[in-house]
Amino acid sequence: MTALWCELAWLGGEAPEPGVLIELDGERIASVRAGAPAGDARRLAGLTLPGLANAHSHTFQRALRGRTQGALGGSFWTWREQMYALVERLDPDAYLPLARATFAEMVLAGITLVGEFHYLHHGAGGRAYADPNAMGEAIVTAAGEAGVRLTLLDTFYGHGGAGREPDAAQQRFCDPGVEAWSQRVAALREGPAVRVGAAIHSVRAVDPEAAAAVAAWAGERPLHAHVSEQPAENAECLTAHGATPTAVLAAAGALGEHFTAVHATHLTGEDVALLGGAGATVCLCPTTERDLADGIGGARRLREAGARLAVGSDSQAVIDPFEEARAIELDERLATGVRGHHAPGDLLRAATAGGYASLGWPEGGRIEAGALADLTTLSLDGVRLAGTPPEHAVASAVFAAAAGDVHAVTVGGREIVRGGAHVALDVAAELREALAR
Amino acid sequence: MTALWCELAWLGGEAPEPGVLIELDGERIASVRAGAPAGDARRLAGLTLPGLANAHSHTFQRALRGRTQGALGGSFWTWREQMYALVERLDPDAYLPLARATFAEMVLAGITLVGEFHYLHHGAGGRAYADPNAMGEAIVTAAGEAGVRLTLLDTFYGHGGAGREPDAAQQRFCDPGVEAWSQRVAALREGPAVRVGAAIHSVRAVDPEAAAAVAAWAGERPLHAHVSEQPAENAECLTAHGATPTAVLAAAGALGEHFTAVHATHLTGEDVALLGGAGATVCLCPTTERDLADGIGGARRLREAGARLAVGSDSQAVIDPFEEARAIELDERLATGVRGHHAPGDLLRAATAGGYASLGWPEGGRIEAGALADLTTLSLDGVRLAGTPPEHAVASAVFAAAAGDVHAVTVGGREIVRGGAHVALDVAAELREALAR
Q1: Fewer Cβ atoms within 10 A, N terminus or C terminus of chain A?
Q2: Torsions phi, psi of B293, nearest 5?
Q3: What is chain B's percent helix, strand, coil content, to nearest 5?
């Protein structure tokens, strides 16, 4: 049996415990003991956290980093045109190395589980590849090679907007109907580190009837949807359906403990009550919401209404789960003029257990016996965190750490990052090569 | 004559130039030539920028990082109580190593010039130290040992609020009057890398008459003031003086090209016209403004009105000038729902030439013949920037770089950071030691 010894480990309290011995049994944690001697266990200096979950990712958008942020003027909608232009150039052979490099960048940032909201299914004109799941399989292969746990959220995309045919890029996202979509998804292979969930792209792209059919198919699987990212989406939905996106999804039977609303930036009080009452998760993607000028959602009222929180890197403008976690709190401070909406532990829970539950791995995101042995260790030797006393280590991790402070990552008991480097991949070289295409 | 050869260097255009040979003459740049061979010049791989200016710093607040962010509830004003408690424990012997370590952290983040807004002058009860400038001298010494260029903005602090006596912590900030303040400041020593400027702490702490006297003393020197950081400050000023803080400072003769308004978050249209019309600088400190729940200022309308922009790390919750620069744009996106208020080059100018001018070093912040040889080089080999094509390198530096990507820093022709490490100090160890006190 392998054992790890953590100088400090966060077991869920306000402060981390010193000297925590974690015994592993395969990919699970067998036992956890604080105040234990290291013995011959592998030592993890610094602060060990449960592995971080990236609950909302579009890996291919990594290729837009630095290329779309700088233009003067514009909006979410002009950004979407640039994203569609990229989509036209991706096929499974190009997608695999881009996704592998991006997933590997995530692992270096401490992410042990990623939810890939996958809608880029088909080739030009919407023609299926010889293997209709070729793009999804490329993502599964990429995650395996990068060493990150994956939930592939295969996304149903119906049309280009209420009553609108899909345009050229959108044709690549569309399946002929929910029946065809579900047959394709049924052929996806799961594995010890791969699960399959469903997604309704948005009420822009999916009719209420189709949303209901996808929700029925999903059953106990994770079900995600983009919800109310932009005011225009709400306006269009009200015109088309006479209800908010959240209300449309509620009527479709989508809401529940397995449901995750992504963004949920522009909600009514009723929307908040619906999501909270259902025990749904809300996945905030604050760095993307800043970049795309989406606005500041109301994370506190959602949490207080009963919703769980999670975070996602979404557009990959940056990949830094610590920045996402603190931004939930910091952006809410900007909107309200008040500090302290969320305790540091709650923000860390959003980035760990919240994401694991949202992605259908409720057995992960905590350091306890029986849980998945997914662990992320922050060095306290870098200048951002140097001199952090243990009693402030949780707040410092949330409010001051950066992706670059991660120096060890374990996924399912396997060491994937050691000394700040990926054990199998030269990640920067992989990124350079993938982005040069 | 020493020469440096930059793989890419930003000379002010939309994209950097390849193969830039920079010849040095002492602490100045003698010549700049793009498309040149490296010869036997020292090679700087990656993207070289003019050195970054941190135009608003309270170094001692580095000791609050991770210690004040996590509390539930609270505001700017409760944070200020925690800051005052720290003040009570600092004397010159404690301040020197804390400031040296913090300045060194700044240099590692690419900062070559810092403006220290210094108001922590005296001992308990406001008693002057044997050398009344002992605290200021500690800062000067610390900057020299850390290798960063310094403008010491010695700050006049009159009282605890209109008609209020200073409390215990505030007594340490106060000089008996502007005359006594100016005599103390006149005794501060300047040097090749040290200049002295003035600051009016705020209209909270300085009467209009005293503000006018400080402004008259400052003359052509840099003059800074905290302006309209919080709505309560505006309300108190309106009650006391019947005018906004900006209008009070304008009537005191403070505004002009040498004036910098720090924060300027809550301005009226008239305030914006006053600052812009005067050609003043506005120093935004976005990560602090997030942390302290200050709100989102209107950087675009200030720039369009004629104000220059600069950035500051202020409370040191994080030290990352790239995060500050992009936050000007990103937070304005959150407030407006629109992208692209500021071109990447303008954001980079705020973090370089804008700060240099604000701090009284107009000969710095640009890579050109005759300018100060202050340079900051970003590695493009890290995962955040890997694969950045030259034409997108400026936008990538602003929107995706992090402090940890800085691998070389030159101040006045001297190499201070090499391979991402400080040439003279073990910065993390210095921080650990200083924070342990």
Answers
A1: N
A2: 60, 35
A3: 40, 20, 40
B375 touches B48 (CB < 8 A): yes
Q: Is A94 in CB contact (< 8 Å) with chain B?
A: no
> Is B195:B223 a contact under the CB 8 Å cutoff?
no
Q: Quickly list H helices, A36-109.
A: 76-87, 92-108
Structural tokens at position B301: 């309308």
A to B CB pairs, distance under 8 Å: 201
> Residue A402: its chain B contacts at CB < 8 A?
320, 402-404
Cα angle B286, B282, B318 (rounded to 5 degrees) comes to 25
Give which of A294, A383, A405 to mutate to test B binding, by max B Cβ within 10 Å.
Answer: A383
Q: How far apart are the C-alpha atoms of B63 and B293, rounded to whole Å?
A: 20
Q: From CA B118, how far away is CA B173, in angstroms rounded?
A: 9
- Nearby residues of B332 by Cβ (< 8 Å), 6 or more positions away: B296, B298, B299, B300, B341, B342
Res A276: pLDDT = 98
B 168-227 near A (Cβ less than 8 A)? none
Beta bridge partners of B233: none
Count of Cβ atoms closer than 10 Å to residue B423 Cβ: 13
Q: Does B13 touch chain A (CB under 8 A)?
A: no
A66, A320, A403 member nearest B392 (Cβ): A66
Shortest CA distance to A200 belongs to which of A251, A248, A255, A155? A155
> Which of these is catalytic: A271, A291, A314, A320?
A314
Residues of A in contact with B344 (CB under 8 A): 69-70
Own/partner contacts of A245-251, CB < 8 Å, gap of 24 or more, are A245/A202, A245/A203, A245/A271, A246/A270, A246/A271, A246/A274, A246/A275, A247/A271, A247/A274, A248/A203, A248/A208, A248/A211, A249/A200, A249/A203, A249/A211, A249/A215, A249/A225, A250/A274, A250/A278, A251/A208
Strand ranges across the sheet with B52-57: B52-57, B111-118, B149-156, B194-200, B223-227, B259-263, B281-284, B308-311
Which of these, B45, B42, B52, B54, lies nearest to B9 by C-alpha position?
A: B45
- Tens of pLDDT, residue by residue over B126-182, are 999 999 999 999 999 999 999 999 999 999 999 888 778 888 889 999 999 999 999
- Please say whether the beta carbons of B428 and A382 come within 8 A: yes
Active-site annotation holds for A314: yes
Q: Supply the DSSP symbol for B169.
A: H
Q: Give the global pTM.
A: 0.97
Inter-residue contact A150 to A140 (CB < 8 Å): yes
What is the C-alpha to C-alpha distance for residues B1 and A74, in angstroms, rounded to an integer?
47
Q: B424, B364, B317: which is closest to B112 by C-alpha?
A: B364
d(CA B317, CA B76): 14
Window 333-392 of B, Cβ < 8 Å to A? 333-334, 336-341, 343-344, 381-388, 392
Q: Does the CB of B107 have a partner CB in chain A at under 8 Å? A: no
- Across-strand partners of A194? A150, A191
Neighbours of B99 (CB within 10 A): 30
Task: Tell me how far apart the alpha carbons of residues B158 and B166 are, in angstroms, rounded to a whole number.
Answer: 8
pLDDT at B75: 87
Residues in chain B, total: 437
Under an 8 A CB cutoff, do B73 and A384 touch? no
Question: Does B387 contact A432 at a Cβ distance shorter than 8 Å?
Answer: yes
Residues of B with catalytic annotation? 263, 314
Task: Sort A381 into a burial class: Cβ within 10 Å, 0-12 / 13-18 / 19+.
Answer: middle
Q: Parallel, antiparallel, or unpaired for β A194-200 and A223-227?
A: parallel
List phi, psi (to 5°) of B89.
-105, 5
* Structure confidence by residue, pLDDT tens digits, B319-354: 999 999 999 999 999 999 999 999 999 999 999 999
Cβ distance of A398 and B339 shorter than 8 Å: no
